[in-house]
Amino acid sequence: MFVHLGRRHGNCAGLNRRDFLKVGGLTMLGLTLGDLLQLRAEAAAGGARPVNCIFLWLDGGPTHYETFDPKPDAPAEIRGEFKPIPTAVSGIQVCETLPLTAKVIAHCAIIRSLSHHDSNHGGGIHYMFTGAPTPVPVGCGASVSFHPSYGAFVAHERTSPNGLPAYIQLSTGTPIRSGGPNFLGPTCAPFVIAANPNNKAFTVRDVTLPPGIDAARFDGRRALMQQLSQAQRELEASDDAMRGMRGYQEKAYSLVTSPAAKAAFDLSQEPDKLRDSYGRTTFGQSCLLARRLVEAGVPFTTVQFGGWDHHTVLFKSLKEKMPAFDQGFSGLIADLHTRGLLESTLVIAAGEFGRTPKINKDGGRDHWASAMSVVVAGGGVPGGQVIGATDRDGTAPTERFLKPEDLAVTLYTKLGIDPRKEFHTSLGRPVPMVNGGEPIRELFG
User: Fold this and answer.
1) Residue 428, pLDDT above cutoff 80
2) In the chain, how many domains are there?
3) Assigned domain for 280 exists
4) Predicted pLDDT at 443
5) Which residues make Cβ contacts (< 8 Å) with residue 45, sequence separation at least 6?
6) DSSP states of 334-382 as a string?
7) What digits encode the pLDDT tens for the residues 346-382?
8) How far is the C-alpha of 92 from the C-alpha of 438, rounded, in Å?
9) CATH no. for residue 408?
10) In this structure, are residues 167 and 192 in contact, taking their beta carbons and an 8 Å threshold?
11) Which of 141, 293, 339, 399: disulfide with 298, CB 3.0–4.6 Å?
């Protein structure tokens, strides 16, 4: 079924920029945003595979110290127990919790200077999953939708073949907060898969016909429903919500009758050796399923991996948690590269914020939106680079200060969508897809 909004498991959220931003310059060659979109359109017209996105959502706010921005020169109460390790790219280090990811860094760009000012889960999730800050303060436990999510806008602007939804969430818990469509309506809501792909009996509801109903009988029932509702449709022709629901139903019909859609969700088609390379974990097998979905043409797939709100026993928890992320992420990047899909698949790994510099009395780190790390790969992103930096203690960016709006503009541009488009709510209020922000120039070749 298509899910609009829902609750989720809880938590306790080179050149400097002035030199670069001249006449809207996108790269050192002076490309504007419009120039880049035109080039992408021409490439698509010439047969290039469109870029799709896999967004790895690390719900809870992962620590940047113990992942992609270790601080070995900081005092002990800041640097923590783990040490940095070298990667496959000379001069780039990551935390020792990421030995497999270190081997694929040549395909990745590490952003160490993304920052915002909302350290509550509710507001931070909304900001990082929509590119828009909340207009009012939002507490940690809130589930809000002031702005359509990335996936919702992508679903509005892009289509998916073979009856597949354009926006899919792989979430074994509950749907991602702020992951809904807001005023875009139910046709842009995510198709949420709550089943665990690591289970042997994994199946996806609503991609097969109910027992005892063959295709002919199903089509007959559909035709009857259409006949009975014709008069009601005419009466409700001016009702945006009803029109949205009809589109929603049409998408559901397409999904349930598409053999290609059913095949895309069938992990049993993958060899055991490949499945092992992703890790036999919920996250690992979700990443594999996400690869199958982008391969089938789904424009936007989100994999939710929760449990990063480490206020206590951080180091013990990460020893148990990081291997699943490390293997799943590195397996995904390596597999996409091997299949020739990495150039057409933008992979982003992010949470709502980073963690505090000082380790607290309970052996954990608390919320810290002033500094965080985001990893981006594929989709034409030049790999093997670090963008920006934080100070010695990891408290704040010292160079290449970036905002969630910059990430949002980059994401939409990579997917061939104009981030400057303006929409109107049902009340006629104009809403920009992204309010401000500039493409992150280093992520464009």
Assistant:
1) yes
2) 1
3) yes
4) 98
5) none
6) HHHHHTT-GGGEEEEEE-S-EE-SS--TTB---EETT-EEEEEE-TT--
7) 999 999 999 999 999 999 999 999 999 999 999 999 9
8) 26
9) 3.40.720.10
10) no
11) 293
Q: Which residue has the tokens 């609503």?
A: 206
pTM: 0.84
The dihedral sign for the CA sequence 187, 189, 190, 193:
negative
Q: Are 434 and 409 in contact (CB under 8 A)?
A: yes
Provide the b/e sequence for 77-101 (b: ≥16 CB within 10 Å): ebbbebebeebebeebbbbebbbbb
Which residues lie below 8 Å from residue 80, measured CB to CB, with a gap of 6+? 65, 66, 314, 315, 359
Of 12-16, 107-111, 405-409, least confident by mean pLDDT is 12-16
Which token pair is 51?
């870029």
First to last CA, the chain: 39
CB count within 10 Å of CB 19 equals: 10
Report whether pLDDT(82) > 70. Answer: yes
DSSP category for residue 175: P
CA dist., res. 29 & res. 17, Å (int): 15
Q: Does residue 380 sit within a domain?
A: yes
Give the strand pairing for 191-193 and 167-170.
Answer: parallel
Domain that holds residue 306: 17-207+258-443
**Dist CA 57 CA 40 (whole Å):** 26
Bridge partners of residue 110, in order along the sequence: 375, 386
* Residue 358 backbone dihedrals phi, psi, to 5 degrees: -85, 135
Which spans in 131-189 are helix H?
150-157
Closest to 356 measured CA to CA, from 396, 315, 306? 396
| 205: DSSP letter | T
Buried b (16+ CB within 10 A) or exposed e, 47-65: eeeebbbbbbbbbbbbbbb
Q: Is residue 222 part of a domain?
A: no
Above 60 in pLDDT, residue 171? yes
Taking phi over 0 as left and psi of -120 to 50 as alpha, with beta for the rest, 356 belongs to: beta
Find residue 304's DSSP bridge partners: 57
Q: Which helix (H) or strand (E) holds 297?
A: none
- CA 128, 133, 136, 137 dihedral sign is positive
CA distance 356 to 370: 9
SS3 52: strand
Is residue 111 included in any domain, yes or no?
yes
